[in-house]
Amino acid sequence: MGTNVPRIKLGSQGLEVSKQGLGCMGMSMAYGPPKPEPEMIELIHRAVNSGVTFLDTSDVYGPHTNEILLGKALKGGMRERVQIATKFGITHKDGKMEIQGEPAYVRSACEASLKRLEVDCIDLYYVHRIDTRVPIEVTMGELKKLVEEGKIKYVGLSEASASTIRRAHAVHPITAVQNEWSLWARDVEEEIVPTCRELGIGIVPYSPLGRGFLSVGPTLIENLSEDDFRKKFPRFQGENLEANKLVYERISEMAKEKGCTPSQLALAWVHHQGDDVSPIPGTTKIDNFNENIGALTVKLTSDEMSQLYALADIVKGDRHAYMASTWINSDTPPLSSWKGDH
């Protein structure tokens, strides 16, 4: 395929990953029905053989089935070639999502993930969401023990506030912070990114293609299956969608001028944020995977970056569909001021 996937040091604790990773959630849930296992295993193998070795999952994806899928895909010598990132902390209870960060739960979740993945050690273990009832120092204390026991190598946080990142890092070094970051979602730039850079923490942008909208535009919404959770996203509805169509059209025009695809342009913008950034676009199709790694060869001028920043500024609508009523044990602020810790 001709694309050389560079390696980067993610954070300052020693973890080395591919400059672009692979988000695996959509293979098992959220974006329509689960995809056929043999096809997903073939896709994972294609990724690893192409140099994309940073694989992202979570115990809540499925739940559980995505970790099991990854475990099957990594048999036969594949495990040694990859960096597995998984997460804990979100459980489902009575139709609501509950956040858990108690030490006993941290340990049991880790043990269960090791079994499903069929590995002895998890490379990067994230706190998926922050349990506001449990001091982050308490959760981190147990994670530190798991590192000392050799069950995990590095610790990460997802959707945490800057102050939580600092407090966690003081207990045990944080290697990576995972947050949504794209032309579609830039709220991390104010506090999260500077905090990570000050502390030597790598940044892992999830949904770098705006849940697929930056790849295909409004046709994405027309083709979603009934059980696709993106149907509930504010950005895909009403006047927000009308405004966001214009953003996509301009990205498409710029991509055409550059001789790349809209996906590649949007991903290249994320890559140009720095060498401490490894986005994890997800896909379930080999053709889309090949297109995504092509973004690594797209170079953007400062003028092009400025044009893209200007487009990002006119995106309309909240980035998440989660309302406070869908969470237990989580102080969810209004969506427009989403800063993490939930």
In short:
With 342 residues, the chain is of the alpha/beta class. It is built from twelve helices and twelve strands. The protein has a seven-stranded parallel β-sheet, with helices on one face.
Quaternary: single chain
CATH topology term: TIM Barrel
Q: What is the C-alpha radius of gyration, as a whole number of Å? A: 19 Å
Uncertain runs: 323-327, 331-340
The CATH homologous superfamily is termed: NADP-dependent oxidoreductase domain
Q: What do the pLDDT scores average to?
A: 88
CATH architecture: Alpha-Beta Barrel
Structural class: alpha/beta
Instruction: Give the N-terminus to C-terminus distance in angstroms.
Output: 40 Å
Helix content: 25-40%
Strand order of the largest sheet: 3-4-5-8-9-10-11
Number of beta strands: 12
The number of distinct helices, counting runs of at least 4 residues, comes to 12
**Please, how many domains?**
1
Largest β sheet strand count, sense and barrel closure: 7 strands, parallel
Report the β-strand fraction as a percent range: 15-25%
* SSE order: EEEHEHEEEHEHEHEHEHHHHHHE
- Quick one: overall form? globular
Q: According to CATH, what is the class? A: Alpha Beta
Description:
Pfam families: Aldo_ket_red (PF00248). The chain is of the alpha/beta class and 342 residues long. It has a single domain, classed as Alpha-Beta Barrel (TIM Barrel), CATH 3.20.20.100. The protein contains twelve helices and twelve strands. It has a seven-stranded parallel beta sheet with strand order 3-4-5-8-9-10-11, with helices on one face. A three-stranded mixed beta sheet has the order 6-7-12, with no helix packed on it. A two-stranded antiparallel ribbon has the order 1-2. The radius of gyration is 19 Å and the shape is globular.
